[in-house]
Write a structure and sequence with these properties.
The protein has 447 residues and is mainly alpha-helical. Helix content is 78%, strand content 0%. The protein has one domain (18-437): Up-down Bundle (Growth Hormone, Chain: A), CATH 1.20.1250.20. It is built from 19 helices and no strands. Helix 1 packs antiparallel against helix 6 (134-145).
Length: 447
C-alpha cells in the first residue's frame, strides 16, 4: 500500500484525515440502506417460522413437512447463487439487486394465497431462485467500497440485520398474525405474508435510484475522495497479485473456498435451526412447563436471544478489528454455540432454557462477521464474485438440512432434543475446521 493509506494492517497506524473522512462518508451512505434491504430480505426468508404456528393446522402440515417447506427455499437458492453473483459483478449492483428485490417481493407476497402444501413447496423454491445472489452480492459490493481493515466491523454492522430482523420481526410477525386475522378475508398468517412481502417490491425501485455501482461513479464523493478510494482499492488488488484474480472455474475448485464453505455450513446450521424452530420451542413451553403465552408474547420472548446477540456481535467485531485476530474470533463463538444449544432443552425452566438459547445466538452471531473477512484475504474481482457465492452456497445448504433434519427428528423422537444435538455436533465440526484451515493457510498472518 502506498503512503496515501498508512494503515495497512489491522493493528497499524492511525488513519489519515482523508481516509477517515471517506470511509465514514461511504459507510453513512451505504450501510444503513443495505441494512434495511437485508432486514426485509431475511424477514421474508424466515417468517415461515411464525406462519407455522397457525398455518400448519390450516394446511395440515407435520413437523417434517414444515421442515421441508422451510428448506426447499434453499434448493433454488443454491443452484442460482454463483450465476447470480457473477451477473451482479458483470451488470452492476444497482440493476441486479433491484431485480432480485422485485422478484422476491412479488413471490414473498404470493405466499399469502397458497391453497395447499404442494403450492407452498413450489413457491418456496421459486422464492429461493429469486433471492439467490442477494447476500453474497452485498458482501461482494462491500469489497468494492471498503479497505480490508474496515471490513469486519462494517460487515458486523451489516450482519447486525440478522438479529435485528429476528428481534424486531418476531413480535411484528406475531402481531400481524394475531391482530390481522380476518383482514381482507384472509387468515392471519396469510396477511403476514402479504404485508411483509410488499416492502421488497417498493425498495426495488429505491435501489435503482439510490445505489452507486463503483467508487468511480460516486458523484456524492469529491474528486479527491473518489481518487483516494479508487487508488486504495486498486492497491489492495495489486497486493493479492494473480492469485486473487484466478478464473471462476479455478476458484470454485479451490480447497480454501470449499473448506470455508463447510465452516459456514456449520455456523449457519445453528442459525437456521434457531430461526425456523425457536418460535415452536417457545410455544412448546406450554406443554413442558405449563405456561401459556399469546402469539405476541411468544414473539417478544423469541426476540430476546437475538437482541442480546446483536449487542455481542457489535462488540465482538470491534474487538477482532482492534486486536487483528481472526481465527479464534470465529472458532471460539462457534464452539460456544455448539456447547450451549444441545443442552437447552434439558434445563428445568423457561428462563434457563432461554439463557442457553441466548448463548447459542451470541455464538452464531459473533462468528459470522469475522468469518466473512477471511475469504476476502485471498479473493478479489471476478474470483471474489464466484468464491463468495460458492462459500455462501455450500454454507446455506444448511438452510435445507437444519430445518428438515430437525423437523424429521422431532417427528421420529417426539421431541426436539435429538435435532439440537445434531446442531451442536455440526457447529463443533465447524469450530475445529476453521482452526485447521487457518493453521494450514499460506497466509497465516491474514487469518
Amino acid at each position: 500500500m502506498t503512503s496515501t493509506d498508512s494503515t495497512t494492517t489491522d493493528g497499524g497506524v492511525a488513519p489519515s484525515e482523508i481516509e477517515s473522512r471517506v470511509v465514514k462518508k461511504v459507510a453513512r451512505r451505504l450501510i444503513p440502506f443495505l441494512i434495511l434491504l437485508y432486514f426485509v430480505n431475511y424477514l421474508d426468508r424466515t417468517n415461515i417460522a411464525f406462519a407455522k404456528l397457525t398455518m400448519s393446522a390450516d394446511l395440515g402440515m407435520t413437523e417434517t413437512m414444515f421442515g421441508l417447506a422451510s428448506g426447499l427455499f434453499f434448493v433454488g437458492y443454491l443452484l442460482f447463487e454463483v450465476p447470480s453473483n457473477l451477473a451482479l459483478h458483470r451488470f452492476g449492483a444497482r440493476l441486479w439487486i433491484a431485480r432480485i428485490m422485485l422478484t422476491w417481493g412479488i413471490l414473498a407476497a404470493a405466499l399469502a394465497f397458497v391453497p395447499n402444501v404442494g403450492s407452498l413447496y413450489f413457491l418456496r423454491i421459486l422464492l429461493g431462485i429469486a433471492e439467490a445472489g442477494f447476500f453474497p452480492g452485498v458482501l461482494l459490493y462491500l469489497t468494492f467500497w471498503f479497505p480490508k481493515k474496515y471490513r469486519v466491523r462494517l460487515m458486523g454492522l451489516f450482519l447486525l440485520t440478522l438479529p435485528l430482523s429476528s428481534a424486531l420481526g418476531a413480535p411484528l410477525s406475531a402481531a400481524i398474525i394475531q391482530y390481522g386475522d380476518g383482514l381482507f378475508g384472509l387468515a392471519g398468517w396469510r396477511v403476514m405474508y402479504l404485508i411483509e412481502g410488499l416492502p421488497a417490491v417498493i425498495l426495488a425501485f429505491v435501489v435503482w435510484f439510490y445505489l452507486t455501482d463503483r467508487p468511480a461513479d460516486a458523484k456524492w464523493l469529491t474528486l479527491e475522495e473518489r481518487t483516494w478510494l479508487m487508488k486504495s482499492m486498486a492497491d489492495e488488488e495489486k497486493e493479492l497479485g494473480d492469485a486473487g484474480h484466478q478464473s471462476a472455474g479455478k476458484t470454485l475448485r479451490d480447497p480454501r473456498v470449499i473448506g470455508f464453505g463447510l465452516v459456514y455450513f456449520g455456523i449457519t446450521y445453528g442459525l437456521y435451526a434457531l430461526s425456523f424452530f425457536l418460535p415452536s420451542i417457545v410455544a412448546g413451553f406450554k406443554q413442558t412447563f405449563n405456561t401459556d403465552f399469546s402469539l405476541v408474547e411468544t414473539g417478544l420472548i423469541v426476540a430476546v436471544p437475538y437482541a442480546i446477540g446483536a449487542v455481542a456481535m457489535v462488540l465482538w467485531s470491534r474487538h477482532s478489528d482492534k486486536t487483528g485476530e481472526r481465527m479464534w474470533h470465529v472458532a471460539a463463538p462457534t464452539l460456544l454455540g455448539a456447547v450451549s444449544i444441545p443442552i437447552a432443552l434439558y434445563l428445568d425452566s423457561p428462563f434457563t432454557v432461554m439463557i442457553a438459547v441466548s448463548l447459542t445466538a451470541v455464538g452464531v452471531l459473533c462468528a459470522l462477521p469475522v468469518f466473512w473477512y477471511l475469504p476476502t484475504t485471498f479473493l478479489t474481482g471476478a474470483s471474489a464474485a464466484a468464491g463468495i457465492a460458492m462459500i455462501n452456497s455450500i454454507g446455506n445448504a444448511s438452510g435445507f438440512g437444519a430445518p428438515y433434519i430437525t423437523g424429521w427428528l422431532t417427528d421420529v423422537t417426539g421431541n426436539a432434543k435429538a435435532g439440537l444435538w445434531v446442531v451442536g455436533a455440526v457447529m463443533l465440526c465447524a469450530a475445529i475446521l476453521v482452526v485447521a484451515l487457518a493453521k494450514r493457510s499460506s497466509k497465516p498472518a491474514q487469518i
